[in-house]
Amino acid sequence: MSSIVTDYKSFLRLEKSLSANTVEAYLNDLEKWLSYLSDAHIDFKEAKLEQCQDFLIELSDIGISVRSQARIVSGIKSFYHFLLFTNIIDDDPTNLLELPKIGLHLPEVLSVEEINAIVDAIDVSQETGQRNRAIIEMLYGSGLRVSELINVKLSNIDFEHAFFKVDGKGSKQRLVPLSEEAAAQLKLWLLIRNGMKIAKGSEDFLFLNRRGKPLTRVMIFTIVKQLAELTGIRKTISPHTFRHSFATHLLEGGANLRAIQQLLGHESILTTELYTHIDVEYLRSAILQFHPRNKPV
């Protein structure tokens, strides 16, 4: 692999005539992609369009700006163009991968009925089923980022006062309320977790895999995608979809925008105001449905 990256670097400098700084930026972005594939145990030559799209969702999930996402995608496309050019691969998985559009992006939102359908699809009689039920309740009930979810510590959960501490972006901590349903499902998961053999160094992590180690981001994405397939939901769903749904449903229910900002851990209220654009459609449908001037005589 290192020899291919070295050849690619030469390709960028000699064939593409890119500056040293641009070449370095391309290689840094490529490293993010290769690391993502490594975590998912996928060889870069075997990657498909689906993995590329999931990678884009993850970039958005961790807060990478759309402009930066577009740059990273351009770098990945360049790498696979090189692989195709040098006959290392026969098919380019990025061929149909679209660059993220720079501008306002309204995220996908699940309805309450769709979330209930996902929850109902989980077989809690299975060991991982109860864990996955707790995961969904935490994502939707508290609006967590996937990176925050996988790092929740047992020592940071206060069941008595229904709060837990989250390590958010930029190492900033915040207290997040624990919903009654999430608390109930977590307690059921802890009964199973307490009987597991836990790997050294993983004792304080809330969510573990069968080997007693913390779950990865990729595993959370896989769990969510499998549940969406089980319920037949055709929307583009990621763990972040539950966070968007959490915020949107709170706004629709009348929650204050500042309160939602604190719950989500947004540094700027402008980030939270994205959800007001979604709410406009909700208000419009409400007017069309309930305003007397819109009802047939």
Please tally the β strands and state the result.
3
Radius of gyration: 22 Å
CATH class of the largest domain: Mainly Alpha
Task: Report the β-strand fraction as a percent range.
Answer: under 5%
* Distance between the amino and carboxyl termini: 71 Å
What number of domains? Answer: 2
Q: How many helices does DSSP assign?
A: 13
Question: Are there runs of 5+ residues with pLDDT below 50, and where?
Answer: 290-294
CATH architecture of the largest domain: Orthogonal Bundle
In short:
Helix content is 57%, strand content 4%.
SSE blueprint and pairings:
Elements: H1 2-15, H2 20-39, H3 49-61, H4 66-85, H5 112-120, H6 127-142, H7 146-149, E1 157-158, E2 163-167, E3 173-177, H8 180-193, H9 217-231, H10 239-252, H11 257-264, H12 269-272, H13 274-290
Antiparallel strand pairs: 1-2, 2-3
Helix pairs in contact: 2-4, 5-9, 6-8, 6-10, 10-13
Keywords:
DNA polymerase, domain 1, mainly alpha, 2 domains, 297 residues, 4% strand, single chain, hpI Integrase, Chain A
Protein architecture, described:
This protein has 297 residues and is mainly alpha-helical. It folds into 2 domains: 2-85, DNA polymerase, domain 1, CATH 1.10.150; 112-246, Intergrase catalytic core (hpI Integrase, Chain A), CATH 1.10.443. Helix content is 57%, strand content 4%. The chain has 13 helices and 3 strands. The protein has helices spanning 2-15, 20-39, 49-61, 66-85, 112-120, 127-142, 146-149, 180-193, 217-231, 239-252, 257-264, 269-272, 274-290, and strands at 157-158, 163-167, 173-177. Strands 1-2-3 form a 3-stranded antiparallel β-sheet, with no helix packed on it. Strand 1 and strand 2 (163-167) form a beta hairpin. The relative contact order is 0.10. Residues 290-294 have low confidence and may be disordered.
